[in-house]
Structure formats: C-alpha cells, structure tokens
Amino acid sequence: MRPEILIPLFAETDGLDGIGPKLKKPLEKLGLTRVRDVLYHLPERFVVRRAVTDLDDAGVGEQVVVALDIVEHRASRSPRGPYRVMASDAKGNICALTYFGRASYTAKKQLPVGEKRWVAGRLDQYDQMLQIVHPDHVAEKSEQAMGQMVEPIYRLSEGLTQPRITSLVEQSLERAPELPEWIEPSMFRREGWPSWRQAIAQAHKGENAKARDRLAYDELFANALALMLVRESNRKRKGQPLQGDGHLRDKLQLPFPLTGAQRRSIDEIAGDMAQSSPMLRLLQGDVGAGKTVVALESMLMAVEAGAQAAMLAPTELLARQHFKTLRDMARPTGVEIALLTGRDKGRARESILMGLLDGSIDIVVGTHAIFQQSVAYKNLGLVVIDEQHRFGVSQRLMLAQKGRVTPHTLAMTATPIPRTLVLANHGEMEVSRLDELPPGRQAIDTRVLPVDRLEDIVAAIGRHMESGQQAYWVCPMVRDSETMDDDIAAAEARYAGLKERFGDDVVLVHGQLAPEQKDAGMARFAAGEAKVLVATTVIEVGVDVPNATLMVIEQAERFGLAQLHQLRGRVGRGSEKSTCLLLRSSELSETGQKRLELMKSSQDGFLLAEEDLKLRGGGELLGTRQSGEEGFSIATLEQVTRLLDMANADAKMLVEQQGGLANPERGEAARTVLYLLERDWGVQTLRGG
Ligand code: ADP
Ligand code: MG
After folding, report:
1. What 3-state DSSP class applies to 123?
2. Is the pLDDT of residue 645 over 50?
3. 633 contacts: CB under 8 Å, gap ≥ 6
C-alpha cells in the first residue's frame, strides 16, 4: 500500500485550477497526469535576465529588463510586416519593440505613447537599430518585471503555454508535503542537500546544483534499493543447479561452427547454471552476432539436466520467428518445443498448458503470455529473455517467481550499454559479450540520399526485385506520439504508392494491423513471395530474412543511432552484398547530419552507442524513449556516473545491515521514496517472496 503521506502527490492533475478538458490531452502527452508528475517536470533551462538602467550597458543578444519611454507606434504598410513600437531609454537610445501578426494588438494596449514601461526580453540588432522582438514581459511597475529575472522554461506539448505550466507547478508545490527523510543522515549533512520538499521547489526556481543532485540521488537510491530488495529476496529463494551431460547438444547439426565468442559465452552460462544460486546473466551482442544459438544451447543444457526452459520475446512476430528457428535447429535432438502467445485460445492453449504442467513440453517460446498466472510449469529451470530492454523490471521479476525454485535467468540484448548503466538498470548482473561477428559477413554499403531522389530509389527497388532479391522500406517516424497514428498513415500512403507500381509484390506491416494480417504479411515476405516489406519500426528487432538485401529508411535523421543500427541490422545477413539507403529531409539539423555521417562510417554497434551518448550530451536524460533502456527520468548521465556508487552503497547497507524496510528509523522513509519514484515493485517482491 502506498504511504498515506503521498496521497496529495498522486492526486490527478484534473483537480488543479485552470485544467479544463482542453488541457487534458496536452498534459497527458507529457505524462503529467498526477501532481507528482508535474513536480518532476523540471525546467529544461532558465532565462536569466539582467536589469540595466540604459541600453549602453547591455550587449546584443543579452536578456535584459529595462525601463523605456514609449515614443511612437509604426504599423507596417504590408499586412504581414512588423508592427514597431519605438521607445527610448534613460540616455535617449532608441529601441524598437517589434511585433508580428496578432501580437500587435497586445502591443497597442500595453504600450501607450508617452508612458514609461519596464520591458523584459532579448536585445537584438536589426540594421543599425536596437530592437526587442516580442518582449517576454511588459510591466507598468518595475517590480512586476523584476519578479521574472529568472524564469523557468519547460518542455511543452501542443496546446500548453509556459505560464500555464508555471501555474500548475506552483499549485502542485503548494500541495507538496514535507516527506520523511530517506537519505542516510551523515551523508545528508555532508552533502548539504536540501530536504525533498525544498529541493523540488528550488529546482523549479533557478539553476540549483544541490537541489538537482538531491532529486537525482533520490531516483538512483530508490532504484538501487528496489534492485537490492529483489536480489535479497532471490537469494533467500533457492536455485537449482543444472548440469547438462551434452547428450542433446551432441545431436545438434548446426550449419556453421560456433564463433569463439559464442563458445565462451556458452561456457560462462554453463558455469553459472551449475551453481545452486540462480544465474542472472546479461548476454550483450550486436545485431547479427548470433545470440539465438547461444540461447538454444543454454536451453538444451537445462533440458539435459531434466528441467524446462522458457524463452520470452517482446513481440508476437519475434516469438513466432524464434519458434520456427529453434524448432528447425533442434529437430535432430527430439526435444519438444511449443509456442504460446496471447493469441492462443481454447483447446490449443489448454493442451500447451497441460504439456507445461506435466513436463511433456521441454521448451516454450512466447510472449509475456507464457508467464501469466494460469501458466504453471513442472520444473522451470531457465528463463531466456530476448531483447530484454523491451521489458520492465517488474515483468522480469514476475518470471523469476515462476518456478518452484528460482529459475536461472539469461537476458539478451543488442543494445550495447556501458557498464555503469548495466549496473544502474539491472543491479548486480554478470555480463557475457559476443564481441565477434560470425565470419563472412560483408559490410553493408550505407548511403545518405536526399528525399527528392525518391523516383530514382523506387526505380532501384524495381531493378533489385528483378534480380530476385528482397527489400525493406521503413517509413518515417512522423511523431513520437503514443498511438503513432500519423506514422501509420505515412506507412499506408507509401505502401499505396509502391503497390501501384509493383502490385502484389509489396506487403505492409505495422503495429495496428490485425494480428493475422501482420503474420500473413510477414510470412509472405519470409517465404520470398512478397519482395518488398513496407513497415513502421515494428521490424526493428530481430527479424531475420537473409534474402532481403536492400533497406530504405525514410527521414533517417529522426531516428536515434542505436535504432538506425538495429534497423540496418535487418540486412547484411546472407552471402549477398547489402545496401542501406538513408533518406534525409531537406532541412537537417547538425546532430541529424552527424548521426547520418556516423552511420555511413561505422557498423560497430558499441561504437555507435557511445557516439550516440556523446551526441546527446551529458545533460541528456536516460529516459526510455531515447536509449531504449528503461531508465532514469530525473538523473542525467553525468549524475548517474557521479552519484550511483553512493546510492548503491547506502541501499546495500540499509538492506544488508539495517534490516531494510523493517528498520524503525529509516524503513518508512525508504518505503516512501520507493512509491514516490514508482519503484514499488521492490516492495512487491517482498510480499511475493
Ligand atoms: P542476433 O544476435 O541478432 O539475435 P541471430 O541469432 O538472429 O543474431 O543470428 C543472425 C544470423 O547469423 C542467423 O541467420 C544465424 O543463423 C547466423 N549465425 C549465428 N551464429 C553463426 C555462426 N557462428 N556462423 C555463421 N552464422 C551464424
Ligand atoms: Mg535476436
């Protein structure tokens, strides 16, 4: 149960003044549905102004507050021209206050000729004339403008304004209670940090390193504490040592020898699984590095030792593909492999559930359906999680609770994340790296083309198809909106265009198609019947069709490097040379351009990931969307690096030496921060375990 003191913070924003039905959507878009969300919507930056007595004292480009006498209004002759209010400072310097469009109405009202006004804004120069375009504030008395010397600037969504958000923040601050202190007392004193309530207020009022650090620390601490609680509860649960004798693996007839990195990883996994404490290992390997075979070998080990194994995939599409691949590869071994997804209903589902319960199914592949309450296993020994960053920590935890004893866990990811972040996101976890690609892979010829070459590209696709090869066409990301309606509209439009040209050779796959349609489309493409697959980013993870050797990505600059790398990894899987065409818009930001350059010059996922972090800078949040990792929404990368050790050490001390949440002095406060920062899955495991 959430501590009572947090009730006002988890109240819906609907209850705040000035929120009508019109604001609901824009707020939801920013994720600001509860008071706590508004409080944690920290300013992106601040405008800091300086009060000057005259403009001689101010530099061009500077944010100033200055008193001006209004001299004259000058409307432009053309209707769309600027509306200028000429004003003079204390020394007689003339400055134009310039307005465009409707804003001129405000100017007429606010700036009567012959009067004095305090004006806040950015001083510019136009020709030889000083000017302020659209002043931020105009006040009759200086104090009013002075009150805005430091002004927070918030991230907005369509329909919201800065003053609106500022007002919501102020109301939320009034409702924020003083919370019990969860930071260890001597650390709290040493760092000189403000209390939570002070910190959250200060963070909205101006640049304040201590306040920001404290809030970041809270997040790291809550996360570390939750992970630590889980680990503790896992440790108390027994694992089962599994030692395969090789009798199944010997029967495998792989069409290729394993790489050194694959063999090494398999050995590391075997070593872990032979222990009685449950394995928790992350297998990191770039796209195409061959993680699936490692998973198969590990699962066979479990089956050899008399246990069952389950493999979890993030999408239906991937689950089906894995099922097919594993079944084909494992055929000579005679193990029973089943597929279970949310779509299986009735008899078929019942019979799979029976098989899992009586042990006649050795390996099950599926989506999260395989871990629902109703699914019981005879003896689940190993859980493999593919593309693990797609799953929340809480989902992963549910899996660990499935077996009679805690099963071993192997998480796999193609997202190369630095060690610090592995630790921050997953707690203490062993890592195996597939740092060697299977031999014979050819470099993918990557080119950047302006979007106005579309005709040529369509022609090239035609030639490509005639040569018997297949192609992916990835549609632009129009918006980051949750529903992605616009993305789908763009994909439908492109599909219609290509279909007109190439007929039934083209299929479309996106997230909102009926599952059967999606499967049918994928299946036709995988079987080589369809030659071009038009898709939104649903094909990002895992799809494996070696005959597809051309990839077109529209508006490539809008994708992050890691995502582009994943997408490109869909080609270059067979023996034929592959090509990736990155189409860019006519207007390209500097970062966008750098990204595309990097994509052209490198095919190393680890390098690209590091460059990606650099491009985004140390101030970047480690939110889910950007990095693909579930992560931190308050702490920046720089703060994670600086504060994580402290947070880990304190969480460890609290859990291992001070009795954890049962500690009479700190327990309640610790519970509070877990709920406040929505790491309450840490509390839940306690109950479950
Ligand atoms: P990922 O790591 O991206 O999941 P996959 O497991 O899908 O990669 O493997 C990519 C492709 O490489 C598959 O077609 C697979 O059969 C092939 N492959 C895997 N290991 C080897 C190897 N040692 N030698 C040659 N090909 C391999
Ligand atoms: Mg894979």
Report:
1. strand
2. yes
3. 40, 219, 621, 623
Q: Return d(Cα 31, Cα 287) in angstroms, integer.
A: 32
Rg, C-alpha atoms of the chain: 30
Say which CATH number the domain at 580 has: 3.40.50.300
- Ligand index nearest the alpha carbon of residue 548: 1
| Contacts of 347 by beta carbon, 8 Å cutoff, 6+ apart | none
Tell me the one-letter amino acid at 11: A
Between CA 224 and CA 679 the distance in angstroms is 9
CATH number for the domain including 133?
A: 2.40.50.140
The domain tally of the chain equals 3
| 476 lies in the same domain as 593 | yes
Residues 6+ apart with CB under 8 A from 645: none
In a domain, 427, yes or no: yes
CA distance 534 to 92: 65
Q: How far apart, in whole angstroms, are the C-alpha atoms of residue 246 and residue 266? A: 12
Greater model confidence, 27 or 102: 27
Most distant pair of Cα atoms in the chain: their distance: 97
256: Cβ below 6 Å to ligand 1? yes
**Bridge partners, residue 552, by sequence:** 473, 581
User: For residues 239 and 233, what is the distance between their CA atoms, to the nearest angstrom?
Assistant: 12
Number of the ligand closest to the Cα of 318 = 2
CB 298 within 8 A of CB 271: no
By residue range, what is the domain housing residue 519? 445-602
- Tokens read off for 288: 């195409």
446 lines ligand 1 (CB under 6 A): no
> Comparing 679 with 242, which gets the higher pLDDT?
242
d(CA 592, CA 196): 38
- Residue 255's φ and ψ, nearest 5 degrees, are -75, 5
pLDDT, tens digit, for every residue of 170-222?
A: 999 999 999 999 999 999 999 999 999 999 999 999 999 999 999 999 999 99
Is 411:386 a contact under the CB 8 Å cutoff?
no
CB of 605 within 6 A of ligand 1: the answer is no
